Amino acid sequence: MSHEEYVEKKRARVHELASRMLDGSIHYLEGAIELSSLRFEVEVSEDDQDFLVFTAVASEIDHLPIGAPRQYWSKEALERHEPEIQESIKWAKEFSLPQCKSLSERFSA
Fold first, then answer.
1. Contact, 106 vs 68, CB < 8 A?
2. Residue 109 binned pLDDT confidence (cut-offs 50, 70, 90)
3. How many domains does the chain have?
């Protein structure tokens, strides 16, 4: 796979993630974490505001059991953190919804 093909594949993933976050078919916080990690893979400016907002979201929620690490948390801890996760989803959407829409549009085929 060429570098250009790799970048295009990652850009397609950005579009897919953002679109699925918007339609609710993917956990909003999991999508935010992955978007943050894709920032350097899609060849955008280091200070791209659409991606930086997801870096901020990922930073704010890094202490929560989100995504794959959930499997290592006890049932009690997951239950204890669930209200904070729900509040974080609400906050993240309020904070980043315009940027999520922008990424979906920018990286559509």
1. no
2. confident
3. 1
**Quick check: pTM over 0.85?**
yes
- Is the CB of residue 107 less than 8 Å from the CB of residue 14? yes
- According to DSSP, residue 71 is labeled G
How much is the pLDDT for 52? 95
Q: Which residues contact 101 (CB under 8 A, 6 or more apart)?
A: 18, 22
For residue 82, the SS3 value is: helix
What is the spatial distance between Cα 34 and Cα 41, in angstroms, rounded to a whole number? 11
**Which domain does 93 fall in, by range?**
3-106
Let me know: does 23 contact 59? Beta carbons within 8 Å: no
